[in-house]
Amino acid sequence: MKRTITIKDVAKELSCSISTVSRAFNDKYDINPETRRKILERAREMGYTPNPLARRLPQHQTFLIGVVVPEFINAFFPRVIAGIQEIMLKAGYQVLIMSSNEDERNELEIVKKLEAYQVDGLIISFTYRSRDMSYFQSLIDRNFPIVQFNRVSSKLNTPKVIFDDYQWAACAVEHLIEQGNSRIYHFAGPGNMWVTQNRKRGFVDAMHKHGLPCGPETIFEAGIFSEDGAETARRLIQTGNIPQAIFCFNDPLAIGAMQEFKEHGYEIPRDVAFVGFTESSIARYVTPGLTSVEQPTQELGEKVARLLLELIRTHHPLLNQTLVLNGKLNIRRSSLRK
Amino acid sequence: MKRTITIKDVAKELSCSISTVSRAFNDKYDINPETRRKILERAREMGYTPNPLARRLPQHQTFLIGVVVPEFINAFFPRVIAGIQEIMLKAGYQVLIMSSNEDERNELEIVKKLEAYQVDGLIISFTYRSRDMSYFQSLIDRNFPIVQFNRVSSKLNTPKVIFDDYQWAACAVEHLIEQGNSRIYHFAGPGNMWVTQNRKRGFVDAMHKHGLPCGPETIFEAGIFSEDGAETARRLIQTGNIPQAIFCFNDPLAIGAMQEFKEHGYEIPRDVAFVGFTESSIARYVTPGLTSVEQPTQELGEKVARLLLELIRTHHPLLNQTLVLNGKLNIRRSSLRK
DNA sequence: CCCCGATTCGGAAACGTTTCCGTAAAATAA
DNA sequence: TTATTTTACGGAAACGTTTCCGAATCGGGG
């Protein structure tokens, strides 16, 4: 690698001081517009760009923000990240994306790395197992800007952006009820996840509201992957305990379960109807098409990004709100009893 | 944000010089193991971590590498990135992930940003429209370490890691031929992509080898998204020009086309058989399951990362090879005429 | 006891910027 | 004209490290 060309070279070339060159690039008042123009022009010719590393050192700002997600195999998080990038790039920030791979230890390490890299703020969606929040609490105590989304922890007092899981779970279940189903089961997500609780509450309350049974024997902690859905379906089939409809925590769960039922000769939606919760784009491509709650992923990302920017700027405690986003129910064949 | 604790604080606390503290952290020989131990211990107690920004300034190494991918909506690139991270993190590098969103202008801007951030190297997979390689050539001329993968440009003399598209396309087509199909069409990808050419050649050569017709009227430049597949299928259906089997450039194309055929009353694989090329994980969840070529995504990422590390270390021109990876054909119902 | 090499450490320059402070020149006011 | 403010710029410190160079200490061989 050749020696890169620095501010000194430009200063020497134009026989002026480095402070002047710096001022030209930072667009400060203390400079003649004419000289500024000249410097910028000549610098461009010389191929000079300020070294952001050195630049950030005295500035105590890195214009870097860290994003930690539990995975990006499913389409959900990548799309949120796309929304985040959209906003952040415009605001002059770079986004450091890291995946904890659903591993709490990884997660902590990554956050420490990001902290050591002096990121100006952090956007995080937790592992479904994350329990120990003490380190994050200490970060917050040190006034470090953090915004949570999707997989949030209620213990942490930061801005949060979540989807209204409760309402839309209820909506999905009511759709199943409207279709004439009364024996409805719920395949739930991992127990300690916030979203799991909310979707489960939505299920329970919707059932109660219509006077339908929904004891613990109708709720199964299935998990998060399609294999989990298949596994839980298999158990159901073995015991012969088949409901009319199943509301699933997410799409992979639903798709795994549907696959399993189909392989055992059940027809969907005739024998068992399904509703999922979209964290992927495959719902429309399975057969039959999977009715599913759609979340505004891109918008979610943008909201999160804007909140963090605001938090970095003002550190205003009033930002520690919980923003609840709306979605919609995409009705497809898997839930329709025509 | 409170003032962060620096090397000076540690030095003062232990009443030694900052150079000694620095040496302790950099594990250099010029230090008594005993003092080193003490310093490290006390520094940990004080909660000191070296500021990587400042650290990298005199070092002329950032331990940052940039990864530019055209998208990460499909599962393919995220998985490759997972492989890259795996290796890079172990080697002490951070990975800056950026998506060009299939936009050539974006791509160029991102690369310049990454360059300005002094990344130690670049891993890139090009936009399907990327044509102007002059800037990348200039980077290479300046001895900047670049590794290409998947969507590579043959104009650029760098290490490349690609999948053996030619061979596996041929393999996929031969599978269709073995199943008794003779009128086979190809839904190709965007024209200027390297991989498009290779998969197309695989198709053509396999057809020729078995004495089957494969003129230009059997090859359709469909695109890259499921909508493109649906669109192309629609055109075929309108003209009534239906082949026995279709070999698709990728899975989304195949899935979109299958959907379209199904909606028009065709049965798959009875009326039309399908084979795709996996850049996603949905092949097994559509109905019927989509026969598809599987690429070793994780391994690809790891190989790419190792090559870049080697390139950074040695700048050895011998590394400018093209690594060709192997895959496998996952046979599912969409192509089986039992 | 002296000299020399090895070991361990401190001082200071360097990395490429930004920014504070001061000053000369220019512009304005008296 | 002189006094005062404004404008434009240069010098230098600072940011938090690494690293070069030199010095002090120590041990051992002569």
How would the blueprint of this fold be written?
The structure is a homodimer of 338-residue chains.
Chain A: H1 7-13, H2 18-26, H3 33-46, H4 52-59, E1 64-69, H5 76-90, E2 94-99, H6 104-116, E3 121-124, H7 134-141, E4 146-149, E5 160-163, H8 165-178, E6 184-188, H9 194-209, E7 219-221, H10 226-239, E8 245-248, H11 251-263, E9 273-277, E10 291-294, H12 297-314, E11 322-325, E12 328-330
Chain A binds a DNA duplex (30 and 30 nucleotides) through helix 2 and helix 4.
Task: Describe the protein in words.
Two copies of one chain form a homodimer. Chain A has 338 residues and is α/β, with parallel strands linked by helices. Chain A has three domains: 44 residues, 434 Repressor (Amino-terminal Domain) (Orthogonal Bundle), CATH 1.10.260.40; 133 residues, Rossmann fold; 138 residues, Rossmann fold. In chain A, 44% of the residues lie in helices and 15% in strands. Chain A has twelve helices and twelve strands. In chain A, the strands form two sheets. A six-stranded parallel sheet of chain A has the order 2-1-3-4-5-11, sandwiched between helices. A six-stranded mixed sheet of chain A has the order 7-6-8-9-10-12, sandwiched between helices. In chain A, helix 2 packs across helix 3 and helix 5 packs across helix 12. The longest helix of chain A has 18 residues. Chain A is elongated, with a radius of gyration of 26 Å. The model of chain A has no long low-confidence stretch (mean pLDDT 90). The interface between A and B is large, with 44 and 42 residues. The structure holds a DNA duplex (30 and 30 nucleotides).
